[in-house]
Amino acid sequence: MTMAGKTLLALLLSSALLCAANPAPAQQEAGDPKAKALFESKCSACHPISRPLGKNKDRDGWTNTVTRMQKVNGCPITDEEAKTIIDYLVQVRGPAGK
Ligand code: HEC
Prior knowledge:
By secondary structure, the protein is mostly helical. The chain has a single domain, classed as Cytochrome Bc1 Complex, Chain D, domain 2 (Orthogonal Bundle), CATH 1.10.760. It has five helices and no strands. It is elongated, with a radius of gyration of 21 Å. It starts with a helix and ends in a 6-residue tail after the last helix. The site of heme C has 17 residues, from helix 3 and helix 4.
């Protein structure tokens, strides 16, 4: 093998190792990317998304909160979008210790 070939091989190997050492963070916690995008765009209008992301609630809790944002505080989402966001929040911000 030529010198350039060896260097290339070494580079390929080391980048493969780096990728293996950096798996995507908490894949199973990430939720549906479309729901995440919806949540991030709709729920950041009035307060930072850290507001909901700082909480842990069960399905009833998130249903109450998201419904209140929609019906009382005036968050412009459809019932369908509310459901998607509730599912997402239950998944990533469910009850503590789950
Ligand atoms: C139109 C403005 C507005 C939008 C959009 C909005 N919120 Fe809120 N949010 C508020 C206001 C005002 C409060 C404080 C009063 C209250 O708690 O109802 C609040 C408080 C909160 C709280 C803290 C209180 C609690 O019950 O834990 C959470 C969590 C929350 N919002 C989540 C969300 C989520 C999730 C979305 C997206 C579905 C959202 N918000 C979109 C206005 C908004």
